[in-house]
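Researcher: Going back to the complex we discussed earlier. I've cleaned up the inputs and rechecked each line, so this should be the final set. Can you rerun the prediction on the complete assembly and write out the structure?
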Amino acid sequence: VRPPTSRRAPAPSSNSEPRPRRRRLRRRDLPHETVALARFLIGKLLVRQIDGETLVGRIVETEAYVVDDPASHAYRGMTARNKSMFALHAHAYVYRIYGTSWCLNVSSEAAGIGAAALIRAAEPLVGTAAMRRRRGRDGLSDLELARGPGNLCRAFGIDAELDGIDLDADPRLALADDGTVPEVGSSVRIGLTRAADRELRFYARGSAAVSGRRALSP
DNA sequence: CAGAGGATCGGCT
DNA sequence: GCCGATCCTCTGG
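Model: Rerun complete. Updated structure for the full complex:
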């Protein structure tokens, strides 16, 4: 039973262990297989350079959109919107949803195969003031700044301009590793109508920055 | 070329 | 929990 005042146990970033300086992840460091990539990204860092500032968050929630997946944008083949999903792994796929929000994915698999890992939430570590400014809403705690895929993109200033970029080398957006090893849980994906039963969502256990109903992240 | 609907969010009941 | 906002993209005729 959890204490009523705190929604979740301490997040992975609250470990007091010294850890190595963060190191940019190159393409060769990332699993190319979609589910392995989605799981691997939990605990890694998202590093954004924008307007002369550095924003860093720890990824705490992802979803896999695999080959032959009716819920995937790539299910019916390549289109103008989803072509970044067909890029070699470690490219960004950024798209607009509901006319209101952006979503960030990391492409997976070989060139020509449409699959990706959606980044659904991050725990802000560096640049929280800038993230709060970008969210444009009052009263948000740090842990709410990048909770949910649309909120994450808003906080990090991610939009169509970053669609298709190579996360291996682009100066504007990178993945990094600081040696943190979180405990990873899994569940069904959030917000889907098709293939809603597949267990393809991954999250950092104990993180207060994950989205979705609490029952999905025990 | 019209129409439906979506990997969301936030406000309201 | 429910619902509307908002704007493309994709589909079918």
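Model: Worth noting: Chain A is about 10% helix and 25% strand.
Researcher: Good, that matches what I expected from the previous run.
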